Amino acid sequence: MLKKNILIIGSGGREHALAWKISKSKHVNMIFVAPGNGGTATEKNITNINLHTISELITFAKQNDIFFTVVGPEVPLANGIVDEFRAHDLKIWGPTKFCAQLESSKVFSKAFMLANNIPTAKYQSFSDYNSAKNYIAQQNFPLVIKADGLAAGKGVVIANNNTEAINFIQEIFNNNKFGSAGSKVVIEEFIQGVEASFIVMVDGNNILPMATSQDNKRLLDNDIGPNTGGMGASCPAPIVTQSMHQKIINEIIQPVLDGFKKLGHTYTGFLYAGIMIDTKGNPQTLEFNCRFGDPETQPILYRLNSDLFELIEAGLNCQLDQIKAQWFNQFSIGVVIASQGYPNISRNNDIIYGLEQMPANVKIFHAGTKYENNQYLTNGGRVLCVVSMADKLADAQTQVYEAVKKINFNCMQYRTDIGNKAIFI
Ligand SMILES: Nc1ncnc2c1ncn2[C@@H]1O[C@H](COP(=O)(O)OP(=O)(O)O)[C@@H](O)[C@H]1O
Ligand SMILES: [Mg+2]
Predict the structure, then answer these.
(1) pLDDT at site 346
(2) Where are the domains of the chain?
(3) Is 190 touching ligand 1 by the criterion CB < 6 Å?
(4) Number of the ligand closest to the Cα of 150
(5) Which class would CATH give 128-183?
């Protein structure tokens, strides 16, 4: 059997986890990560390549006999990387530019949900300040306001009163805070409940669910402080019972496949539904992402006991109905360690100590790091995601935090309560 070369696009913890998991496959020769980070730079059978544009990546894929490419982040998907690779007969795992609008435009996404009866908060969309302001004046609070386009997790505010709501739409429409991503806004009802991440693989016709998980978006313990890209995640999410799981597939995931078919399109790739299980026990869709989550990927893939290469290959061959994903019957937890100033600014170039002393049941996925002169240096806001797994959630928590405490760099910050969402249900 000829072993295959794989290309992964991205540089975060999610991409390190994807590359690490695929590198364990018996089918794989070498994994290239573009551009990668300090973790992927030093992993066995993984090589970073410093390429960025879609055309450079296409040339690389052709010259290096890449069997398939996996896209980590949303931006290249929204820019049409899948359409362009396919136009060159290159296999790539992800949705087309059209389908990626489910994430890249909240206005598209809400209209799509409405058209396909997918449960979600009631909303209106606006493209100018005055109409948004008049609408806000008639609403109850809290009220949720979302910039239309991609905003790296910073485009949503939960306004507790009129002043907060007006300040946000002023920033968007009058100060152009998000550029063209803020040319429209969605204003929607606030839904009280418990959040979970529901991620699946879709091959156009079939759905293969990944394990459920829960992210922790706020910077500080007990869900206070500013929103971040995610400070840690646990897997699975006990709130998603078997019957809830089926409800989410029937009411939220399957209608996405059917809805795109009605529009003459086919959804392929990872699909992520951000779910709020409301106080009546109904799953409501907060948003869709057209990729795996970060940091959810790290604890989810650590729990995966199947060959990810084989799952993606089945997806590319529209055979997800013929394969199963096996999971370790344990809880996994990933704790993000961020640099000083995150999420507003990030302090770079601090030496990271303590990475080599880890026990076998701990895996460190790198995000904002680089490897220079035999040292790992910080190179971004979210620096590492430390993952561990145990039969009991409390043991997974103890293990992961023992590992986190061995790591040290200047002014590092992390939450101490990751996993509690899964305990306190
Ligand atoms: N309608 C809503 N009701 C309550 N909370 C919400 C609502 N919409 C979003 N949120 C909260 O805001 C966070 C970010 O919103 P989301 O739509 O996921 O946007 P993005 O991830 O693009 O920033 C969610 O994870 C959730 O905590
Ligand atoms: Mg989100």
Answers:
(1) 84
(2) 4-96, 128-183
(3) yes
(4) 1
(5) alpha beta
